[in-house]
């Protein structure tokens, strides 16, 4: 059933609070040992895999679309950078297509332009949702305009940034942090020229465990800390972290429009903060221990070299605009110009989708949502009322596009069908990032690997179908959010092959990594807020899920014991993974697998037991197993979004009739 999480209604744009547990050495899902430093990096949402050159396509499947077995092998930053370049190309191609359409382009309704009414050169007039500039007449109803262009300006407090000499080494921990002077007397900013690699733990000058530079900043409540790096020369690829005095990680950033890094953090209470500069691939396991790095790295060592750090504690402008939506409205927003952070708040108001990136490349071709920009967001309104679009992190003019749509199946006779294919299939894996047509083996080929027999096949399929039906039909109906929600669940055992018919999306359950050519457990064709493309494919591969016990946390066998109901647990695990992949092409991103609430969109990695519904006894198929559902959860930190994702609400209106 539907879950919710407690939230605090504050307007803090771009603030991702990250409080990872203490890092400890443990194997990755592939069995390779991870150092405490690697554990800390992954817990902070920073990858440890070798990074592809900026804009180049990384190796492996797109992790935004895939349920990867081992996050340690994923180049998250590389995929974010690649998708940004591809999203810009997609936006340009769409514009060219519109121009080529000629008459259709001329007939297209132009956006209504609204100017920010905050006085030029000032801030504070529309900095929180309650003070948002209200835009009337916007919406998807008769007589309303559904395309909006907002022109405004971010006007920040001006702060001087004198050059400050770097602290002598060793400055690689909170207790050894160098002084910036910020917060002492009237000083509010600083520029420091320093270097990663010149300390006692650097690659060339020390023991090679990795060099870190920490800086102390004192800031007042209500101000915004802005910390950024610039590396005009040398190979250094920086990562920035911001710590509280007790070592709590408050914010982190790897790449910000390039390989340099930037953090903006709104100060909740006056006090000291500690900014840390490190190289990608080598964060500290313990911010109080300058020697807690994980080593040089192999085959691609962390980079070293010079950088310039600019830090300020000042008033920073952020602007909110209110639009009134109907339940089921699907809105997409993009921003160009100075602003690099874009967000949408729901009616609470609660941040629902904050972004400093453009991942619209993974929308399907039929999606009308905006693509291209410094940042792109999307949202499906679950309640009627005022919603809030906000921008921040920049200085000067910005240009926001906000477009609203109704679900494509609304009012139409066709019903969305979700078809589960257990018989093996020929799949064009090119739509999933693969090489083309591949033949995948059926579910039956994997039964013995779970200790089941051919005689169990029909019962297993029926149990899986029942689980998927509960996850993606009954729970959504019971939510009461949309009385027109309607979906048909069909399967290859009980129904004729549905694939190829109108409004049929499928999940193929079977096959292996070798057969598919895609190194993943599951993968979907797109993330489609609003379900504008109603005929998509996802895979749930079964080789890792049926691998020997304890070989990986991603194997269902790892959680089976003498007291387990094997058939029930295998069905439960499979139905959850199937619902997860369908959840992608019905509109959901990944959620955090380390927070307190299990969610069907939780990423895998070391959290597979949570996704499978394993209870506190850590044995699957027993009485304490958990019913994992769609609901509210924070976005997966590694994928860079901020806020609370309502994974049930994003589906329940896109799948409607």
UniProtKB/TrEMBL annotation:
<keyword id="KW-0732">Signal</keyword>
<feature type="domain" description="Peptidase C-terminal archaeal/bacterial">
    <location>
        <begin position="211"/>
        <end position="278"/>
    </location>
</feature>
<protein>
    <submittedName>
        <fullName>Pre-peptidase C-terminal domain-containing protein</fullName>
    </submittedName>
</protein>
<dbReference type="Pfam" id="PF04151">
    <property type="entry name" value="PPC"/>
</dbReference>
<dbReference type="InterPro" id="IPR007280">
    <property type="entry name" value="Peptidase_C_arc/bac"/>
</dbReference>
<feature type="signal peptide">
    <location>
        <begin position="1"/>
        <end position="25"/>
    </location>
</feature>
């Amino acid at each position: 059933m539907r879950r919710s999480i407690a939230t605090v209604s504050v307007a803090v744009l771009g603030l991702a609070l990250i409080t990872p547990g203490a890092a400890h050495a443990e194997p990755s899902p592939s069995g390779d040992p991870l150092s405490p430093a690697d554990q800390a990096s992954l817990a902070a949402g920073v990858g440890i895999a070798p990074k592809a050159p900026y804009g180049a396509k990384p190796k492996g499947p797109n992790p935004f679309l895939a349920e990867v077995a081992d996050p340690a092998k994923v180049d998250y930053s590389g995929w974010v950078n690649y998708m940004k370049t591809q999203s810009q190309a997609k936006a340009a191609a769409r514009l060219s297509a519109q121009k080529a359409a000629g008459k259709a382009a001329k007939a297209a309704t132009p956006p209504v332009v609204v100017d920010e009414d905050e006085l030029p050169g000032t801030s504070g007039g529309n900095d929180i949702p309650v003070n948002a500039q209200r835009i009337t007449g916007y919406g998807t109803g008769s007589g309303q305009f559904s395309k909006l262009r907002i022109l405004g300006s971010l006007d920040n407090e001006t702060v001087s940034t004198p050059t400050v000499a770097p602290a002598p080494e060793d400055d690689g921990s909170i207790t050894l942090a160098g002084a910036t002077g910020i917060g002492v007397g009237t000083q509010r900013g600083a520029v420091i020229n320093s270097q990663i690699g010149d300390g006692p733990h650097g690659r060339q000058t020390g023991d090679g465990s990795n060099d870190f530079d920490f800086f102390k900043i004192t800031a007042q409540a209500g101000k915004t800390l802005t910390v950024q790096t610039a590396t005009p020369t040398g190979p250094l690829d920086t990562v920035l972290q911001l710590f509280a005095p007790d070592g709590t990680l408050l914010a982190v950033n790897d790449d910000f429009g390039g390989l340099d890094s930037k953090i903006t953090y709104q100060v909740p209470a006056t006090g000291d903060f500690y900014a840390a500069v490190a190289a990608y691939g080598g964060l500290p396991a313990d911010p109080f221990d300058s020697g807690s790095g994980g080593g040089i790295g192999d085959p691609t060592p962390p980079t070293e070299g010079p950088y310039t750090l600019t830090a300020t504690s000042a008033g920073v402008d952020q602007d909110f605009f209110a639009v009134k939506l109907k339940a089921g409205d699907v809105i997409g927003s993009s921003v160009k110009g100075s602003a690099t952070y874009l967000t949408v708040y729901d009616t609470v108001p609660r941040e629902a989708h904050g972004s400093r990136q453009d991942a619209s490349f993974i929308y399907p071709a039929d999606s009308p949502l905006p693509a291209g920009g410094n940042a792109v967001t999307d949202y499906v309104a679950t309640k009627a009322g005022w919603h809030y679009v906000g921008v921040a992190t920049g200085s000067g003019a910005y240009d926001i596009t906000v477009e609203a749509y109704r679900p494509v199946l609304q009012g139409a006779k066709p019903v969305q069908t979700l078809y589960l294919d257990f018989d093996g299939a020929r799949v064009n894996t090119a739509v999933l990032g693969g090489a083309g047509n591949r033949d995948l083996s059926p579910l039956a080929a994997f039964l013995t690997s779970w200790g089941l027999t051919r005689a169990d096949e029909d019962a297993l399929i029926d149990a899986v179908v029942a689980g998927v039906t509960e996850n993606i039909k009954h729970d959504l109906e019971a939510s009461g959010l949309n009385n027109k929600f309607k979906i048909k669940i069909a399967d290859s055992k009980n129904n004729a092959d549905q694939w190829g018919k109108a409004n049929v999306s499928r999940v193929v359950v079977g096959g292996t990594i070798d057969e598919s050519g895609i190194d993943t457990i599951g993968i979907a064709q797109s993330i489609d807020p609003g379900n504008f493309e109603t005929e998509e494919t996802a895979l749930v591969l079964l080789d890792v899920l049926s691998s020997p016990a304890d070989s990986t946390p991603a194997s269902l066998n790892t959680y089976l014991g003498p007291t387990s109901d094997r058939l029930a647990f295998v069905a439960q695990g499979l139905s959850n993974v199937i619902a997860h992949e369908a959840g992608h092409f019905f509109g959901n991103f990944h959620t955090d697998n380390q927070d307190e609430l299990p969610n069907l969109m939780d990423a895998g990695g070391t959290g597979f037991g949570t996704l499978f519904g394993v209870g506190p006894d850590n044995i699957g198929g027993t009485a304490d197993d958990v019913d994992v559902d769609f609901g509210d959860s924070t976005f997966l930190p590694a994928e860079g979004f901020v806020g609370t994702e309502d994974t049930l609400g994003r589906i329940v209106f896109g799948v409607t009739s």
